[in-house]
Amino acid sequence: MTKGAAALRLLLLRLNLSAGLSSLPVVGSQVPEEVDVRLTGLRVDVANRPLVSADVTLVNALLTEMVSDGKLLLLPDAAWPGRTRLGLNVELGGKVLLLGSQNGSPAPPPPNQGPVVQTGGNDLGGTPSTAWYTVDQVLGPVHVDRLGVGFADGTVWLLVDAGVELGGLKLAGRGMGLGVPLNDPARITPRLDGLGIGFSRPPIEISGALINQVRKGYLVSLLGAAVINVPSFSLSAVAGYAQRVDAQPSLFVFGQLGFPAGQGVGPPPFRVTGAAAGFGYNSTVRLPDISEIDTFPFMPSAAGSGGTDAMELADSLTTSAGGKKPWVSEAPGRVWLAAGLRFDSFQFIHARALVLGEFGLSGSDISLALLGQADADFPLKSTGSTRYAHVSLALLATYTSRENALRVQAQIQPGSFLVHPSCRLSGDAAFVLWFGPQHAGDFVLTVGGYHPKFQVPDHYPRARRLAIEWDAGPVSLRGACYAALTPSAFMVGAELDVAFHEGPIHAWCRAVLDALIQWDPFQFRVTLSVRIGVRIDILIPISAEIGVDLDLWGPPTGGIAHVHVAFGWTFDVRFGEDPPAHPKLLDWDRFVAQMLPGPVVQVLVETGRLPAKPAGGAAEKPDEICEVSRDGFTVLTRTGIPASQIVLATPGHTGKTDPGKTITVRPAGATATSVHKVTVTHDGAVVDPVEDPYRWTVEHVTGKVPLGLWGKALGSADQAPPLPVPKARPELTDGLTGALITAPRRSPAGWTVKAAETAIGRETQAIPEKPLLATAQSGSAPTRPYDRGKLAAKLTGTDRKPLLDALAACQVAPPPGGSLTDSLADYAEHIHSYLRTDPMTRSSET
Length: 846
Prior knowledge:
Blueprint: E1 10-20, E2 38-47, H1 53-66, E3 83-92, E4 95-101, E5 129-139, E6 142-152, E7 155-166, E8 169-181, E9 189-191, E10 194-201, E11 204-212, E12 218-230, E13 233-244, E14 250-258, E15 271-285, H2 310-317, E16 328-345, E17 349-360, E18 366-378, E19 389-400, E20 405-412, E21 417-418, E22 420-434, E23 443-447, E24 466-472, E25 475-486, E26 489-502, E27 505-518, E28 523-536, E29 542-554, E30 558-565, E31 569-576, H3 588-595, E32 601-607, E33 633-643, E34 645-648, E35 656-659, E36 663-665, E37 670-672, E38 675-678, E39 680-682, E40 685-687, E41 697-706, H4 707-710, E42 732-743, H5 757-760, H6 788-796, H7 800-809, H8 825-829, H9 831-834
Parallel strand pairs: 34-38
Antiparallel strand pairs: 1-2, 2-3, 3-4, 5-6, 6-7, 7-8, 8-9, 8-10, 10-11, 11-12, 12-13, 13-14, 14-15, 15-16, 16-17, 17-18, 18-19, 19-20, 19-21, 20-22, 21-22, 22-23, 22-24, 23-25, 24-25, 25-26, 26-27, 27-28, 28-29, 29-30, 30-31, 32-33, 33-42, 34-35, 36-37, 39-40, 41-42
């Protein structure tokens, strides 16, 4: 020690570690072992005062003499200001590097440990800091730019900036690292701040980046974008990858293809100007409302429009907005696919369409969606004040197995107009068809909504009136219309309101039409109102209005007209029949002929049906008997008339009856008992499928049936007559619609063995026959008396000729020119190809 210096108290801690970049998420499995950057040790040095070079030399000499394996403890050969120093031992390219900080600068290496990486650094105190060391070293395809040591929140970090370049493709990792918590050094934490990608090989250029988002409870959460440019088009993509600590990774990728403005692919009637596609694993997409289609980020964007910044788009996909779920969110076991096009027709109609499908990896949960948006301008390519019409239409069609319903919606989007931008268009249309048990068989088609007095069921879609509004100076125009079809009714209506207001003069004309037609039984109600009026506001307001309100009904047909004459005079005109208190009922024969659905009874194979084998390739007929699997099947019987009883015929009995409710026939105003009889025969004899040896199961099937056919008769004591005002009621009612018969899978006799598929898996491979015995032959062991060279010489030498001479002497010589008299010269020449090794022979035994 230096003379006169204070006593030196030194604490040296060394901890062996073993971790590398191969431990990182996402990219770790792709790091080759020979180029792995490994963390091999943690160093902590504490001194009570600064050390000069002489102090360091003396301490290293003492450590070498006193400690058998003191090399790990050696101090760097440089003066040290003292206090605390943290460092990491890093193995890179076969060399061990010491990375650390001594109050602002990297520490030099200890003796015989190789050169230190020279660069500046930052103080590694209690605040977050990083000391970076320039490496600039190439290890095969891997280029290590720099290494860093950081300290934050009680954790020492090894950070690596490195990249891989293969054939023009560059992959760069930023902020890759390993953290060593001082309170638990054995728990090494991987880190990855981001990934970069680049590719340049004219005419293709690719660039992009993925940024790691620090999220609590996640191993990694990456989000980013990439752009691919070629002279004729460009492709931009966004992607996300996230993995929770206790879950499988979630991934999504979405890309858009764009052409330069005015360019596309295809003929003028259908020219593609853009495309989009996406994929998600353990991920789900929130479907937009019809009003959100224009801003839905997965819709193909305009070619050459640029649009939102790619990173902003990627962030918006996974961020909640307006209290709604993000467009893309994690969903274990879910997979989605998306594909879309942007196209135009004669540059008159510009449209976008996207197909989105999502399904579960287990089960039958599936959803499909078709999203579309189209714009048209008149005249062609018109802008600003030169446009006389602009129509923008959005379309959304969805099917979900969870709801088991097909929905189609259309909407005229804001900004649509006719003649002038102030003449605005609006309105909705919808079609829904339900398949599921809750509303099976129900449907609705509406354009512009429903009849004003029709109480819409909760599960029906709401639609705005198909409307036009125009304010042109003193004249204003308001118009609206609607039409709707349900299983029991059709309705249509319209209204037009024209008004004039100039100074003291007010004039108006209003017309309203509403019509409701119901069937089962048939009836209709039509109301029409027309009013024309004028008002003059001078000293004394003067007004006059004339009009008529018509109310028409049937059958029997009749009506009443309320006539309004100027100055408040009114009178009524009646014609035809009075409205019936109750609708006219049908007799049974007429009901069967006109309204009974057909076929009344059906037998459908739900599962286990085998492919048909028609003779001569003829198509299978619906009434032909089909074959089912002997290893279990399910048959559904269906009746078009709701059953009040299910009867299962059994041998020698009338059947097993399960009583149900009495059915009602609304058009006939009658009640009845409907028996659905199911008979199972085997070899021509009736059998009971529930008993031994069959043990089938028979379940009742309940479904929805039209209330117009099978509801309570109109005008009954508990239901008011529908005229003159129709009363809202459900369109469907519950009914017993058939039986589900299930034949169980065959159970193997005796005991069974459970085994994994991999344990019993096999692959069939065709191999040439090998005439070898399954058991070893007895007797003397085979020998190899001839190698192939000697055998070739004997085949073409003297051995063959004496044999042929002997056969000739016995008058059994083979005919000349045949294969038996061939000299075998060609075989001898290629004997090493015919025989892969020297042949073996066995001596004969007697």
